[in-house]
């Protein structure tokens, strides 16, 4: 799991081993047991972004193919399809963990890691 925020810093890694959460941040290493976790919640953050590289590649291929097959109207249709096909959706699993010593950490996780975190706490 990747550390993306919190009172321990914005970079680092976290690993679940046994019944402990091991955190490695620039300020040092920490380990927390399940009893040390005061609260925890998770969320899914969805993003939609435009890929310029995909647009250029699609414009060259689809626009050129449309120009050869249907002329200028085909080129316009090819450009339109490349714009529509260049939008990318992604989602990140984010976990916010607060410990009994007052420290907080935000982790970017896989769905499997989120399940492990909640299993560790229970």
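Sequence proposed for the structure above (122 residues):
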């Amino acid at each position: 799991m990747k550390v993306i925020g919190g009172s321990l810093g914005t970079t680092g890694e976290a690993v679940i081993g046994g019944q402990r959460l091991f955190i490695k941040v620039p300020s040092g290493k920490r380990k927390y047991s399940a009893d040390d976790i005061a609260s925890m919640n998770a969320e899914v953050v969805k993003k939609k972004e435009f890929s310029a590289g995909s647009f250029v590649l699609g414009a060259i291929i689809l626009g050129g193919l449309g120009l050869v097959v249907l002329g200028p109207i085909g080129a316009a249709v090819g450009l339109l399809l490349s714009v529509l096909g260049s939008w990318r959706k992604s989602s990140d699993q984010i976990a916010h963990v607060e410990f009994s010593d007052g420290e907080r950490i935000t982790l970017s996780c896989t769905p499997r890691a989120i399940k492990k975190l909640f299993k560790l706490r229970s």
